[in-house]
Amino acid sequence: MPHKPRLVLYQPDYPHNFGGVLRSSACLGGELHLIGPCGFPLDDRRIRQGALDYGEYQPYILHASWDAFLKQRREGRLVLLTTQGSAPLHTSRLKPDDWLLFGQESAGAPDFIHRMADLRVSISMQPGMRSLNLSVSAGIVLYEALRQRDCYSG
Fold it and tell me: Is residue 62 part of a domain?
């Protein structure tokens, strides 16, 4: 059986966004990884507000740091979702063993992650728009990964 699409959040800043990603992952069937430290405690009530009752259906794998994540990372490309992406999502071919990585809401991904990424992808937006909300972006990318794998059964 192929991997579930793997979403990776690098040091997220906002608990409600993390809750929204939990909810999308639960509903669409993603595997969620969280790289700390986070900008909030993991028992923050705003996570539950964003996830509603879906959070209980979506476990996540917590990596204490970037180095801890790299030690546990297995096969697969590191695909960075960034407004500075060199390839638009809709023309990028995602692979079942990709790690779909999102940077911090406030600062994006650090330069060293940009350099490490095997592919840097952006979500196309209207001219003049800066960025989408993290939980919205994660839902779009997760759905696209599933669509490309023909796994969506809804």
Answer: yes
